[in-house]
């Protein structure tokens, strides 16, 4: 599609699968006039158990695909991909690129009163130390306790959001956080906002939960406004989805994340993603695309 104005171009968002829909939902709620293209890498999910090298490769391929679609802004909705590949993607593409770590870290640094912040995420996110680094760079006095919760993602995908099994798993993962007496907990994974109720029950009402999806959406609204890229409702709104596997499953599970049905889903081949990334790399000598 050709766009007359930069502001009319869509926002591109990618995630390892359906989880990034938590971010998309907040963006649609805050910025209803914006067109969006969401890409879920459902064939290669989960990213959270993979090496940084592999996640960087996938992230560059997903970004190349979206940039080629003519987006005005790229959002990396996946915490794992943001944690390990944000800087590389920023240095590769000319459009603004936003991850989910910075807004979540900032909100946590502002929320804590006792200087004890917990961060939960996938193995790769926690291993990268990205949240801890970012929070400490904002306030070196804050002590950050990080913990991976690998079973949370499959539980959410299974639709188990609030039962005794999820509660037992949450108790096990979060005991250490409780012992440290944290007063703020960052939900550092796309799937965790769906477990808020159980996490709140385990942690108690006094612990502030930071939802990285909400923080991201606030941040996008601010950046589009200050850069003059905010679209108005005068031009039509398009919401398009691409997945690398199982569009039907994406639609089914996606409902849990969006509380709405997802239309206009197209399957793309991994081989074509790899080709596009290679072509762009060759064309630009891997400077800006
Ligand atoms: N999207 C991932 C994240 O936010 C969770 C799912 C995965 O491991 O790919 O870290």
Automatic annotation (TrEMBL):
Residues that hold substrate according to the record: 15-16, 47-48, 79-80, 190-191
Active site: 78, 189
Pathway the protein takes part in: Cell wall biogenesis; peptidoglycan biosynthesis
Enzyme class: isomerase
Pfam families: Asp_Glu_race (PF01177)
EC numbers for this chain: 5.1.1.3
SUPFAM superfamilies in UniProt: Aspartate/glutamate racemase
Function text: Provides the (R)-glutamate required for cell wall biosynthesis.
Protein name from the UniProt record: Glutamate racemase
